[in-house]
Please model this.
Amino acid sequence: MIRKGLLYISILSIVACGHGGPELDTPTSGSINISADDAYKPIVEAEINVYQALYPRAKIHAHYESEDSAFKDLLADSARLIIVNRKLTTQEENYFSNKQLFPEQVKIATDALALIVNNDCPDTLLPLDKVKAIFSGQDSTWKAVVFDHENSGNARYIQENILQGKPLPKYCFAVYSNPQVIDYVSNNKNALGIISVNWISNEYDSTVISFQKRIKVIAISPKDSKNPGDYHQPYQAYMKMDDYPLCRDMYIISREPRTGLGSGFLSFVTADKGQRIIYREGLLPATVPTHIISY
Model:
């Protein structure tokens, strides 16, 4: 009897090891968590929806938050990969290196920051010098300057590239999402909002169309000019030609140590179908031709 019991347990152990243990995900099946900067929610959801339609056994659970929180998720291994607008810092690379991990960092698109104002605002042409004056506290044309999140990629970009690391003035503050920035600006005549252009760039999306109707998008010129032709909005073509000055790269950073679902999703986004989704969403894909969308 004892021997039969031991034999039964041994058989169960073998079965459990072969079939009953945790199932590893593959490039086209399984379940993983990823994190993304809230700035990229429309484009990330579009990519995930198509990927899961093509591979029904794949479940990608995306968490949308500030850039700072996304990197914390990656470091803590609570996200297999993240979608953000900067690469790892040297300190972050050293952290992974000490764990014998070497994350893959892949540029998937060029994004742009869009400056938005209330529909009643008459001033929609700004030279870059005036943009710099607004964020440095030297121009108080707008009583409120609104970002999507504290510690967001949008705020970091302005601090690093416009202010050279200096703090934002007191009239700059954050809400909790890019749609909330649009809401605030549409209801306040003296507000200037900063969002990722992919929230207002897909001309086929009904939600985007409703956003476009509620605000105006600022056109920016690298120099002070009276010629309206020198001012450009964040269209794909102007991003491609470097005519719009507030552009940045968009990355997928994966810490996946093997070829799993994260690798499959990354490969999809960087391949033809994934790049065409980026194109349709209004960002500048790494490999696909561009066109101009009118806001």
